[in-house]
Each structure stands twice: as structure tokens, then as C-alpha cells.
Amino acid sequence: MENRGVIKPMLGTHYPMISHGKGIYLYDDQGKQYIDGSSGAVTVNIGHGVDEIAMAMAEQASKVAFVYRSHFTSQAAERLANKLADLAPGDLNWTFFVNSGSEATETALKIAIQYFQEQGITSKTKILSRWTSYHGITLGALSMSGHLMRRARFTDLLEDFPAVSAPYCYRCPFHSTYPGCGLQCGEDLERAILEIGAENIAAFIFEPIIGAAGGAIAPPPGYYEKIQEICHKYNIVTIADEVMTGMGRTGKLFGVNHWNMTPDIMTLGKGLSAGYTPMAATIVSDRIISVIKQGTKSVMSGHTFSANPLSAAACCAVLDYVESHHLVHNSEARGEEMITGLKELMMKYAIIGDVRGKGLMVGVEFVSDLMTHRPFPAEAKVGEQFLSICFEKGLIVYPAFGGVRGYEGDSIMIAPPLVVTSAQVKEILNIMDESLSELMTRLIA
Ligand code: PLP
User: Fold this and answer.
1) Where are the domains of the chain?
2) Longest CA span, the chain
3) Transmembrane ranges (predicted)?
């Protein structure tokens, strides 16, 4: 019986001990193989055990692993920042490095507010966000998150930022259908701005494709163009939270690249380092930085490990790997195969209500009634059951529930490393097929 150790998400539950990983596979100390069908937390984009990354890290560590960002910069951090400036859309040219996605979105919040403060506008302190969203677990980031389950225990401590409906066509908050709806979900942003007052709002934050809170929900065409237009009209900074969607996950390098929109600030995490080291980033446009530069104050964010050379070198090597192995293209091509395969399973299993997503960020929503999209009751824990059946069979899929209705719910994500092959996509689909069959048997019993 354990009486000390790492605090696990579910204390008292047995967690297998992982000994090593290679590509899309993980192996525990008992020799069991798992397919990492979720890339951990949608993180390990280049797969496990890539020697090039280990070598780049060893080389950097032997030169210098850490310098304090208030004293020095480093070649590795500058190279990474320059690379990101080359790749990011528009004039997103300035990067602030942090260690987690939550820190990246909190930094974005602070920079957006500071941008207005430097212009003498002190009332713009609110950040608008959407319901059915996730921007991180620290209190500022959680305040911006419309994830009901994760907010629940801390509501009294949180700012009331989420105010806008999600562009969630399968469960349209306006009970309309695209394109006849006239993009009411986009117009909902303007409604919220008028209600709260543009003079109080610094920024609007969004995940280009909704991840943890709903399972790969992409908006209808025209939505982001509308959002951009509304934000410009009311002098509101746009923050694209690309912590999950960035670095090729959705079949384009950044999620916003699917639309004709350029955010003022972009956050990255997860796939930036592909999990080889904790690293995240807040990328800021020339327009915002030029105002902040003229002011007298530094950006009041930063952490001891911000921009450390070791993590930066790891991220440079990850980016090189993504490019040299054409992983953005592979994400798009294998994602299409995954979605086609899941749509076939949808014909076979009447509990699959929706299959959606882009690239290798693929969502499946379970429902008890295909016609009405009625969800299963919370007690049935259908999503959780599916996850544990898959886990038993050696496949890891990602829980994307709790964000919509606040209870354990019904959407999951399949998001394997972007190195996945066509044969491995079939392997994943076969295990899902077997797991769905077992789930159906349990539900009927
Ligand atoms: N933003 C998005 C879109 C995320 O999906 C997540 C994590 O899932 C975060 C922010 C928070 O990142 P982290 O867990 O690294 O703090």
C-alpha cells in the first residue's frame, strides 16, 4: 500500500509505471504496450523517444542549461523566437516564453491589459471568452475558461469572463442550422460586448478549434472572419489560444490558418516542445509591442525558467523534426483517414452522434438518441467507460468531457502523434471498433 509519493489525479487508483516509449507506443514496466492515441494530453506531436531531440538537449545541457532571462538571452531562445516569428501569421513577431499553456494564456491576458494601460485606458480589464472552452488551470486562466466542471469548485474565486456562446453546431446554442443561422454564434460576441461595454473589455480569447472542453469542435465557415471584424470595430485584442491546436495538430501549422484571420496575440504550448520539456509561449504582434515598448513598464509576467536555453534547444529540434518529416501534411492526410474510418464506425454503432475535427484533432460525441442528440445521463458515465475499455485494450484516448454540461459527459478525442502511419490509424480504429462493441454490450445489459 502506497503511503507517499506523487499526488496522482485519482489518489488510490493504480497507475501503470511507464518505462519507455517509441513513436506512437508506450511500454509499461510489466511489458504492456499502449498506443498513445492522445499524444498524452495532445502534446507528444513528434512521438516518443526521438533520438535527435535527446541529442540536441544533451548538447545544450553540456554548454549551458540555464541563464536567468533578466540577465541574459541565449542563442537557443533567440533562434526559437525568430523561427516562430517566421512561421506565425501576420506581424506576430515577439515571443514571451513561459513553461505551461496556463502561464501562456495568463501572460496574454496581462499583455492585452497593459497594451491599453500604456495608452492611458485603464477601464479595459475584462477578457471575454466563450463557454465550452479551456484556457488553463491557474486562477487567471481558469477565469477565462468556460469549462464547467473545472471551474465548479472555485467559482467564487474566479472572474466572470466567459460570456459568449460557443460555435458548437452539433448542439447549437441558438437551435439553428448553418448556413440559415446567419452565424448567430458570431453575433453573440457583439451582444456580449454591448452588454458589458467595449470600454471595459481588453481582449477576446478563443481556441481556434475547441479541445478539452468539447472535443475538436470547429466553427462554421465565416465565424472567425466575423469575430475579427467585431473585435476590430470595438478595439478589442484577439487572443488565439493555440496551446492545443498549434504546431501542426490540426493539419495546418496553426489552427487559425484554416480561416482568414490573424490574431493580435497567440499562445502555444504542448506541441511546441512535444512534451520533451515544459515550454510554452505567448507571441505578440508588432502593433501591441510597439505600444508597450514606448511605455515605461516591463511586461509583468515571467517565471524563473522562462526562456531557459535547454528547453529552447529542445523546441528548436522539435520544430526542425516537424519540418523535415513533413508532419503537418501527415497530420492532414492521416486525420482524413481517421475521420473516414470513424464515420464508418458511426454507421455501425448507434451511440456515435458526431465525428468531427481537423487534422489529427478528432472528436467523437456519444449520444443516447441520434435524432434528438440527447446525451446519456451523467450516471451512465459513457465517455469514462469507453476510455477505460480502450485503456484495457492498450489504446489511450483523450477525455473531452465536463466542459459542456458540467458533469462527466460524452465527447472524447483521438489525437495520436503526427508521425502516425496509415497502418497505425487502422490499428487504432480496430481497437475502437472492439471497444465500441464492448461498450454497446455493457449499455444494453
Ligand atoms: N489552453 C488550451 C487550449 C489547452 O488545451 C490547455 C491544456 O489542455 C491549456 C491552455 C493549459 O495548458 P497547460 O496544461 O500546459 O497549463
Assistant:
1) 18-49+326-444, 52-324
2) 68
3) none
105 lines ligand 1 (CB under 6 A): yes
Within 8 A by CB and 6+ apart from 440, the residues are 349, 351
Instruction: Write out pLDDT tens, residues 227-262.
Output: 999 999 999 999 999 999 999 999 999 999 999 999
Angle at 50 between CA 46 and CA 54, to 5 degrees: 120
Q: Does the beta carbon of 167 lie inside 6 Å of ligand 1? A: no
User: If you measure from the C-alpha of residue 415 to the centroid of ligand 1, how many angstroms do you get, rounded to a whole number?
Assistant: 15
Please state the pTM of the whole predicted model. 0.98
Average pLDDT, the chain: 96
| Residue minimizing CA distance to atom 14 of ligand 1 | 101
Cis? peptide before 173, omega within 30° of 0 = no
**Ligand 1 neighbourhood includes 146 CB (under 6 angstroms):** no
CA–CA gap between residue 116 and residue 101 (Å, rounded): 23
Residues comprising the chain, all counted: 445
Third-level CATH fold of 18-49+326-444:
Aspartate Aminotransferase, domain 1 (3.90.1150)
For 88, the grid coordinates are 506565425
CA distance 416 to 376: 26
Contact 204, 192 (CB under 8 A): no
The closest of 254, 49, 238 to 130, measured between CA atoms, is 238
Please give the pLDDT value at position 406: 66
Strand partners, 439: none
Cα separation, 137 vs 123, whole angstroms? 26
Q: How far is the CA of 344 from the centre of ligand 1 (A)?
A: 31
Q: Is the pLDDT of residue 408 over 80?
A: no
Q: Which fold has domain 52-324?
A: Aspartate Aminotransferase; domain 2 (3.40.640)
C-alpha cell of 199?
A: 470600454
Residue range 98-146, pLDDT digits in tens: 999 999 999 999 999 999 999 999 999 999 999 999 999 999 999 999 9
In angstroms, rounded to a whole number, what is the distance separating the alpha carbons of residues 223 and 250? 17
Tell me the average pLDDT across 212-236. 97
Tell me if 18-49+326-444 shares its fold with 52-324. no
